């Protein structure tokens, strides 16, 4: 069965010193034959939305999928904007996204195909929350919603960012989604930290002549070096957060989901922290607490070979 997907992301692969997992998420959504990627929307998050849009269009060109519609979305969080400025490397060709904001593009796609579209949100939830707020029929017409966000059985380990980045960046948007009536599948740090790209694998990719693989490998090596020098001293790998959320669309068997009622803290020392109550009968989320790392790696590798 093929699932129609709209991918909402804050892509930073290609920006010096930025995370690379969103690039693998886009590549997996393009490569997986069980996914029909109908729309790509961008949002402020890992980098500013203008840079994210430019890098998304560049990566789609490398993936041979430049025909896919890309719409630029929210440039700031709903209430507490963060100043983020990305850097586009030299040599990137300037391309323009489709006319019109991401939110009407999302609501229009779902309205035209009720019950058929799964939105996969791997950045802050600003665009999704705006779609829910502006179109009262949007949430009910979704075929599904997968969110890369939260940490449910652990912590971030960072006092300055107690909540997982996507939720911490726009907790008000996360609350709107949690109160929308949509029981989304949440893929958080509990499971994404367990799926890793190792330096030897990144180097092998960098040595591969494929336009995507060599690009992704080069920036993955740079990201692992950055982590080793900053937040994960001495590490030889990086987590593949976002592609695991994409994999949840066609391979839900790779994850163990539990029903829960989830609330999010909006401010203070616990800003962005989510609390999952598995005993509350008012279920508003399905939370991933287990993952098959080997199965995911095989799925990702097999899919990327199709590019």
Give keywords.
307 residues, alpha/beta, Inosine-uridine Nucleoside N-ribohydrolase, Chain A, 12 helices, 11 strands, hydrolase, Inosine/uridine_hydrolase_dom, purine nucleosidase activity, Inosine-uridine nucleoside N-ribohydrolase
Write up this protein.
- Helix content is 37%, strand content 19%.
- It is built from twelve helices and eleven strands.
- The protein is α/β, with parallel strands linked by helices.
- α1 (21-31) runs parallel beside α11 (241-250).
- The relative contact order is 0.16.
- The strands form two sheets. It has a nine-stranded mixed sheet with strand order 3-2-1-4-5-6-11-9-10, sandwiched between helices.
- It is globular.
- It comes from Friedmanniella luteola.
- InterPro entries: Inosine/uridine_hydrolase_dom (IPR001910), IUNH (IPR023186), Ribo_hydro-like (IPR036452).
- Pfam families: IU_nuc_hydro (PF01156).
Task: Provide a quick synopsis of the model.
The chain has about 300 residues and is an alpha/beta fold. The protein is built from twelve helices and eleven strands.
Structural class: alpha/beta
**Helix count, DSSP H or I runs of 4 or more residues:** 12
Dominant shape: globular
Tally of separate domains: 1
The CATH topology label is: Inosine-uridine Nucleoside N-ribohydrolase, Chain A
Largest sheet: 9 strands, mixed
Integer average pLDDT: 95
CATH class: Alpha Beta
User: Over all CA atoms, what is the radius of gyration?
Assistant: 18 Å
Strand content: 15-25%
CATH homologous superfamily descriptor = Ribonucleoside hydrolase-like
Counted beta strands: 11
GO molecular function, one term: purine nucleosidase activity
Domain Inosine/uridine-preferring nucleoside hydrolase: 17-297
InterPro entries: Inosine/uridine_hydrolase_dom, IUNH, Ribo_hydro-like
Protein name: Inosine-uridine nucleoside N-ribohydrolase
